[in-house]
Amino acid sequence: MKTTRRKFILKAGGGFGALAGTAPLGAAAEGEGPHIAVPARRVPVLAEADIVVCGGGTAGIAAACCAARHGAQVILLERWPSLGGMATNALVNIWHTSDRTKPVIRGFVQEAIERGGRFVRQMAHYPTRPETHEFDSTGMRMVFDRMLQDAGARAFCNLTAVESVVEDGRMRAVLVDTKTGRKAVLGRMFIDATGDGDVAANAGLPFDFGRAADGLVQGMTMMFRLRGLDPARIKAHPEDAQHVFELMKKLRDEGKFPPFLEAAARSYLASPRDPIVSYNMCPVAGNPLDEEELTQLSARAREQVYRYADLWREMMPGFESADVEQMGFALGIRESRRIRGIKTLDAPMVVNAVKQPDAIGHGFWMIDIHDPKGSGHTTWVDQKQEMMPPVGESYHIPLGICLNDRLPNLAVAGRCISATHEALASVRLQSHCMVMGQGVGTCAALALNAGVEMAKLDVRTLQSQLRKDGVYLEDVP
Ligand SMILES: Cc1cc2nc3c(=O)[nH]c(=O)nc-3n(C[C@H](O)[C@H](O)[C@H](O)COP(=O)(O)OP(=O)(O)OC[C@H]3O[C@@H](n4cnc5c(N)ncnc54)[C@H](O)[C@@H]3O)c2cc1C
């Protein structure tokens, strides 16, 4: 099966091992493995804009909206049928905006909260916990559509950026695969917000993948929702909850039950708030850039979800009518390529709340690593103080982690920025990705207006504009 599939690979990275290095994907693959030659051909131009944003997750949406509001013609390209990335299509529905004493992420995030209306709910304990808002992933799809329309950005879903055309040291176009063939989208500036850094990697930018020790990336999770719970009945049976939880662990340790995130499962079993509950507890691990492996992992995760639901329905009072209401359209992916930038965010910068001269906003989330081997354990559960900035403090997200020193008209935003494996485990949060999207989108538009490259834009001018646009930006050295 593997051999047959590889026969048709034109230009692709090797397996997991090949990606654990830092070679550009295209370069690493040239000359390796079976190939076919494709004749040179003319590629029709689908569209052209000042700024082309690839990837319509939270980072890309923020980048596209903010660039368009500053006068740029903007195109957003998204491979899935709807926008929002992990926030909508993987059902990851919590935003974090507080350093545990006050909100320190505002700007586009605050706007999304306000535009979200009835689809966004402020959480109890606001703002004394980092998690401040939860939202309805389905409703937010529509809200994101409206925000882009209102900003004047043009969105294309259902097409995938598959090649990056570089001419004379600049990005010239991305080639996209559509239902009617391969086409070109031309631009003056490009922002890669694909989460996986596809555009930057295809353009030959170096990247890192996985943790230093073994090249493994953070574990993935299939988010799901159960309906039909009876919260009062469940809460009246704490001993049963404990019994079922212990049984799950025993069966898992005997290899008769799938892995699960223990801390989450225990509280989900004991104290649901509503008859419909979202669950973040179903782990799998592997390489999110290997499509066959990802297919198998997704299938396994769907099985796991039904195994949990079936056991709980059978064993746990209050779950008698429970069933799976919804599952992520896609597996939730936390980490893949990290495109090397002018700067690299690292763990000391995060936990010591380091401030940076080229700050575009604040971040504060802890170093939250989901076991790359798929046990489901996360460092969040341990709540170790040395893994998080102190209460009431936050670190700066610098522009330099989004820019590179090779292609001046290409930036990245979101979870594919330049960070160590550990620092990415903090800055990957959607709220933090939107900070990057707003910073980079605004930077690209102002740079175009000023006729300079993004890295040459006066950073004080950018920061002053970001503050005017509502971004919380304090203590800039
Ligand atoms: C299970 C799970 C739980 C999490 N919990 C939280 C949480 O509670 N709170 C929080 O804030 N964050 C959480 N995160 C992290 C967060 O969801 C992600 O890190 C964040 O969504 C990344 O945003 P992004 O815009 O960079 O990428 P994504 O959301 O991954 O969006 C990338 C978009 O680009 C598109 N795309 C990819 N490749 C291409 C291509 N070649 N061409 C065109 N389009 C392309 C994708 O389809 C997608 O829409 C969680 C993540 C997971 C997986």
Task: Explain what the structure shows.
By secondary structure, this protein is of the alpha+beta class. It has three domains: 1-41, no CATH class; 46-214 and 337-468, 3-Layer(bba) Sandwich (FAD/NAD(P)-binding domain); 220-327. 34% of the residues lie in helices and 19% in strands. It has 17 helices and 19 strands. The protein has helices at 2-7, 16-19, 25-29, 58-69, 86-89, 107-116, 137-151, 198-202, 231-235, 238-253, 262-270, 291-315, 347-351, 379-382, 421-427, 430-450, 459-468, and strands at residues 45-54, 74-77, 94-96, 120-122, 131-135, 154-156, 160-167, 170-178, 181-192, 207-209, 220-221, 224-227, 277-279, 283-284, 323-327, 337-339, 359-363, 395-398, 410-412. Strands 1, 2, 6, 7, 8, 9 and 19 form a seven-stranded mixed β-sheet that branches. Helix 10 runs antiparallel to helix 11 (262-270). The longest helix is centred in the middle third of the chain and has 25 residues, at 291-315. Mean pLDDT is 93; it is low at 1-30. Bound molecules: flavin-adenine dinucleotide. Flavin-adenine dinucleotide (FAD) binds at residues 54-60, 77-80, 85-87, 90, 92, 94-96, 160-161, 193-196, 198, 221, 223, 280, 332-334, 414-415, 428-431, 433.
What layout of secondary structure does this protein have?
Layout: H1 2-7, H2 16-19, H3 25-29, E1 45-54, H4 58-69, E2 74-77, H5 86-89, E3 94-96, H6 107-116, E4 120-122, E5 131-135, H7 137-151, E6 154-156, E7 160-167, E8 170-178, E9 181-192, H8 198-202, E10 207-209, E11 220-221, E12 224-227, H9 231-235, H10 238-253, H11 262-270, E13 277-279, E14 283-284, H12 291-315, E15 323-327, E16 337-339, H13 347-351, E17 359-363, H14 379-382, E18 395-398, E19 410-412, H15 421-427, H16 430-450, H17 459-468
Parallel strand pairs: 1-2, 1-9, 2-6, 9-19
Antiparallel strand pairs: 3-5, 4-5, 7-8, 8-9, 10-16, 11-14, 12-13, 12-15, 17-18
The protein binds flavin-adenine dinucleotide.
Flavin-adenine dinucleotide binds at residues 54-60, 77-80, 85-87, 90, 92, 94-96, 160-161, 193-196, 198, 221, 223, 280, 332-334, 414-415, 428-431, 433.
